[in-house]
Amino acid sequence: MTVTWEDLGWERMAAGVGRRRLPVWDCTAGLVVGSGAALMVDAGSSLGEGARLRAGAQELAGHRVTHLALTHPHFDHVLGAAAFAGAEVFGAVGTDALFARGGHGREALRSDAVAEGLDARSAEEAVDALVRVRHEVCGEWTLDLGGGRQVLLANVGPGHTGHDLAVLVPGDPEVVFCGDLVEESGEPQAGPDAVPSHWPAALDRLLDLGGEDALYVPGHGAVVDAAFVRAQRDALASRFGVSR
C-alpha cells in the first residue's frame, strides 16, 4: 500500500512538494523531493520534533534528507536541525555566526525557546547540538535535487529578521516557502531582531519570485496567494510607517 502525504500528516501542494504544520507554535516545515535527494525547509523546535520530521520526510521521499534550508534563525524553525545528520545546511548570510558556540545568538535561541514554553532541558540539548550553516546565501543559490527538480534559495531579507531566506520551487503551481516574512494565523511578529523598514520590500521580492499564480507558504498558518502577501505587505508598510 502506497503511503500518501496525508497519511503522514503532511499537506501535498504539488508533485513532490509538501509541508507540515507542527503542533504548539503552528510552525511550518516543508519538503521538496528529487530523485535521490530531498530538501527540508526548516527543522522544527526541538531535536525530537526534528527527528519526527526527518522520519516522515524520508518515508515520503524514499531516501534520506540531503539538504536543509533554514528560513530564519528563530528557535521554532531551527532547533531540530541537528536531527538531520549529514544534510547540507543552508541559511542567509550571517546565520552561521549567530549559531557560533559561546555567542549571544545561541543564548537568545535558548532563552526565547524557554520563554515560549519549550522544556528547558530540551532547549539546552537542542542549542548544544546546533549545526553549522556551511552554505550561506548572499543573493540566490540553485540546488539540483535530481530528476529535473531544481530549487532556488533566495536571500530576500532583512525583514522579519536580519537573515531571511525564501525557497522557490518551480512547477505547476510554483511554491514559495516564505518563513515568517508571511504569517497567516496571526499578525506578523516583529521582535528585537526585525528590520521593519525593509520588511515590505522583502515581501515585494517574494512576489517577484513567485508571481501571481504561486502558492505562498507562510511560516505559520494556511497556504496563501499573492493577493494575501500583497495585502500583508501594505499592512506592514502602514504599521511601521514605511513609504512606498
Can you summarize this structure?
Helices cover 29% and strands 26% of the residues. The strands form two sheets. A seven-stranded mixed β-sheet has the order 1-2-3-4-5-6-7, covered by helices on one side. By secondary structure, the chain is α/β, with parallel strands linked by helices.
Explain what you see.
There is one protein chain. With 244 residues, the protein is of the alpha/beta class. The chain has helices at residues 47-61, 75-78, 95-98, 104-115, 120-128, 199-210, 226-240, and strands at 11-14, 17-21, 28-33, 38-41, 67-69, 88-92, 135-137, 140-146, 149-155, 165-169, 175-183, 215-220. 49% of the residues are buried. The mean pLDDT is 96.
Mean pLDDT: 96
Side by side, the strands of the main sheet go: 1-2-3-4-5-6-7
Provide a count of the helices: 7
Please report the distance between the alpha carbons of the first and last residues. Answer: 54 Å
Radius of gyration: 17 Å
The biggest sheet amounts to: 7 strands, mixed
Proportion of residues in extended strands: 25-35%
* Low-pLDDT segments: none
Helix and strand content put the structural class at alpha/beta
Care to count the β-strands?
12
Shape: globular
- What percent of residues adopt helix (DSSP H or I)? 25-40%
Can you write the helix and strand succession as a string?
A: EEEEHEHEHHHEEEEEHEH
What's the topology here?
Elements: E1 11-14, E2 17-21, E3 28-33, E4 38-41, H1 47-61, E5 67-69, H2 75-78, E6 88-92, H3 95-98, H4 104-115, H5 120-128, E7 135-137, E8 140-146, E9 149-155, E10 165-169, E11 175-183, H6 199-210, E12 215-220, H7 226-240
Parallel strand pairs: 4-5, 5-6, 6-7, 11-12
Antiparallel strand pairs: 1-2, 2-3, 3-4, 8-9, 9-10, 10-11
Helix pairs in contact: 4-5, 6-7
